Each structure stands twice: as C-alpha cells, then as structure tokens.
Amino acid sequence: MRKLSRTLQELLEEFFRAKDGEELAFQGDRDTLKKLELVLRALAQDTRYDGNRLLVKKRRP
User: What is the pTM of this model?
Assistant: First the structure.
C-alpha cells in the first residue's frame, strides 16, 4: 500500500473542509493535480483545468 504525498493529502483535506457549492482552485505540480483529479472524479465531482490550476465546485455525490 502506497502512502499519499503530503501535498496531495493537504489538497484533499482542503476539499473535504469546503462547504457544498464552494468553488475551489488547486495549484501544484502536474502529477499531484492529476492524482487529485482522479480522486475527485471518483467522488463524482466535476473538474476542469484553467491554465495550471485544477478547478472544482464541491457538490454532494
């Protein structure tokens, strides 16, 4: 079993602390953002890229 990188863990914690309907913009290295996108899509979140940022509007799955 692999451990989450600290950066990815911090980004996920930020996501889970956000309120429903809140828009979030995540910045980080491309590899970390791709992993974050995979997790968020598994949680039925719509994601999109704006330049080097990953954008998501938190909603209940």
Answer: 0.88
8 A C-beta contact, residue 14 and residue 24:
yes
Per-residue pLDDT in tens (0 to 9) along the chain, 61 residues: 567 789 999 999 999 999 999 999 999 899 999 999 999 999 999 999 999 999 999 998 6
15 near 28, Cβ under 8 Å?
no
Tell which residue, 9, 6, 45, 7, has the closest CA to residue 27. 7
Strand pairing class (23-27; 53-57): antiparallel
**CA pair distance 22, 59, nearest whole angstrom:** 8
Tokens of 48: 């999109």
